[in-house]
């Protein structure tokens, strides 16, 4: 046997030094702690063990490979010679210390390394050590200045990358509600689910370096409309064969089930798509937040106008337009530089996984710079026209009259300040809502805001330019009439709806007013589920500064629809007044949301790791109606996986109490989220914090 063969070096083992690397790379929270999870652009250490001491002429090559047929030509195979020195532009590995048969190696990845799941092997001469289970996950790095996702502020990184719980804001402008949401980006299988999505995207290895392309691909893959992605969108109000969108409390159960079955999970609506996309982005290392736009326009005609048609009773008609105004819509912002755009558009980018419109042949939306939306530069990539309209479109009300047997729409009014209100996200480091409307648009009616709208109009397709004229403010009414709606402060489900339509006459003139008012049950997307009642009256204002007209709806009129539709519904009141003498038209609207009794969570403030504690859930049905088929959904990251407990029917006045024995497996501040659902009440949420100590 030759001297060379006898002394050829063999690798016996590789220690990934997970703990020390994870601490330096801010990845210690990930459940996959048997693998190595690192962030690009930052050095990490490996310990190699050989069958003898290392000599100066030994050639050792550390290899990282992706996929079944790795090749250096397409960057799916990376080979790093330990003797080759350093190079900040590409992957390199250097010996930092040797001790007997052990060797400490420092591996550095470039700040634009392709993110993904790499398999590690070590080549020494003809010998290749290929353990098969040594996996290195490479993520984006918001701590690295040279990375496109670099975020300089540490408290912001803590919130937008490392925080695994938060809130998603829902409701209406008048009643904004923070819904607790567990993002759970560090939970079991979530990282592997994200890697599976990366592979499913079919993005080439070279393109996986680019945060813009990766985030756009993920916005397509979180919905199932193309490529059988994560979530099946459903707004039908019927969710048999799946989970109702209102029942989810977090993203981890969705991604875990998707990873196991490789089939779309049923069902999602906008807040679920957004919650899951926040999880995927944070898991991959891209700073992200869920963002809610109240009174959100869905402009299908690209003319920055949303038309709303009402019949002669004042009831909204759904079948005359594909445009809509959603009570709220939830999407995402992701933080990154935009080297693909002119200078000045780095920072927050809007990204949306809810399948609304096709973009480049696929249901995807963004990333689109908030700075471009704010300034009206809607020619910039991606989908900036659509996002601009969501926060800026004008709303036009029409009444469809029957004239000689034909439907004739009559324009009632145009609103320039009704869309894109109270744009909300969770505040950094606090459990409160932050209003970020100013990051999306200038103040309504300001010269800068109208200038941005005018600029946006110049980029719309020419066939629509005619309807994108600048809207001049309406002159004050000659008649001096004002409309208002009064309602009880709290509308409890199961109680009658008592409204007062108020006509105020400030001019002391004698006017004849044809007034109609309607009350409808609608979903959050504006879909009409039931007409509950209307009034039609002609009133004389002479000698009457204030006229009040009651509009009362019995509980029976709405409870059947509320029970049969599996979405959370709201009350929409529309009023139309026509002044005969001046032919002037006024409209007003009001959104009312139902109130529910609270769900209480009781548990200790602190507990020890791996020691049981009891958590109790208490609910008293103070409503006048029974709640049927009640279910309690509970989830606590680091405490237990999502559980659903059947509670049966809860009659008025009855109290239920459920208990769960919890055994926490992670230290730190943990949050438990609970949600009660039933046929009548679609979701009562509560949360409770607990500190787990060692």
UniProtKB/TrEMBL annotation:
* Any GO molecular function: metal ion binding
Its cofactor is: Ca(2+)
Q: Which residues bind Ca(2+)?
A: 392, 394, 444, 449
Q: Does the keyword Metal-binding apply?
A: yes
Top-level lineage group: Eukaryota
Location of the active site: 270, 329, 352
Under InterPro entries, the record lists:
Ig-like_fold (IPR013783), Ig_E-set (IPR014756), Papain-like_cys_pep_sf (IPR038765), Transglutaminase (IPR050779), Transglutaminase-like (IPR002931), Transglutaminase-like_sf (IPR036985), Transglutaminase_animal (IPR023608), Transglutaminase_AS (IPR013808)
Cofactor binding description: Binds 1 Ca(2+) ion per subunit.
Q: Taking every annotated instance into account, which residue ranges of this chain make up the domain Transglutaminase-like?
A: 262-355
Reaction(s) catalysed by this chain, per the record, are: L-glutaminyl-[protein] + L-lysyl-[protein] = [protein]-L-lysyl-N(6)-5-L-glutamyl-[protein] + NH4(+)
Tell me where the signal peptide lies: none
Sequence similarity: Belongs to the transglutaminase superfamily. Transglutaminase family.
Q: What is this protein called?
A: Transglutaminase-like domain-containing protein
Query: What is the species listed in this Swiss-Prot or TrEMBL entry?
Result: Mauremys mutica
